[in-house]
Write a structure and sequence with these properties.
By secondary structure, the chain is mainly α. It has helices at residues 32-44, 48-63, 70-83, 89-111, 131-143, 150-153, 156-178, and strands at residues 2-3, 23-24. 57% of the residues lie in helices and 2% in strands.
């Protein structure tokens, strides 16, 4: 079935209703109640892919709601940017790498202005670090926990950036993994 707009007020089916392959060309015009009814029926028949599609539509509609609290808006925006509400694992990888690069650059900028033992910083007068050293430090920054890294711990600002980056990188990895759930078993 394909339609421009659909409105369901209440549904009751004696048997399981299949909303598979329903296509709403403009789901933004549908109210939340209708989207939730379709989504719940898709969940009952274990159609995860279409369920996640309507879950994303519901969350996008919620984002446009002006009555949404600031905390909910931030969380929904992060979920949209990090994996499109569970629909895009590639977006999760991009989000994780982007966050990692941003925090690594922030670490280098801060390290250029503070005293620490961290070997990399922005240096325009002396010799530039080799690509292998930069890549090694970046990969250590992204993938290691480094809570025992004395170079990063040598300055509180660097350590604070490192801890914040681990929170967001961990969130990005979680979102990447959770986007695969539509391909798994129930």
């Amino acid at each position: 079935m394909s339609c421009d707009k659909i409105k369901l007020n209440r549904t009751h089916f004696d048997k399981v209703a299949f909303f598979n392959d329903i296509n709403i060309r403009n789901p933004d015009n549908c109210d939340l109640k209708t989207i939730r009814l379709i989504k719940n029926h898709l969940l009952k028949v274990e159609n995860k892919i279409d369920y996640l599609k309507y879950n994303a539509i519901e969350h996008n509609n919620l984002l446009r709601n002006s009555k949404l609290s600031v905390n909910d808006r931030i969380l929904l925006n992060l979920n949209k940017q990090s994996n499109d509400f569970g629909n895009n694992w590639i977006l999760g990888i991009k989000f994780t790498i982007k966050i990692g690069v941003q925090f690594f650059l922030l670490l280098l900028i801060v390290n250029s202005f503070v005293i620490s033992r961290y070997p990399l910083y922005f240096n325009f007068k002396e010799e530039i670090a080799s690509y292998s050293q930069i890549l090694t430090e970046f990969l250590k920054f992204i993938f290691s926990f480094g809570f025992d890294n004395k170079e990063i711990q040598s300055n509180g600002f660097l350590y604070l950036i490192f801890i914040a980056s681990k929170i967001f990188i961990g969130y990005g990895i979680y979102q990447t993994i959770s986007a695969f759930r539509k391909y798994g078993k129930s």
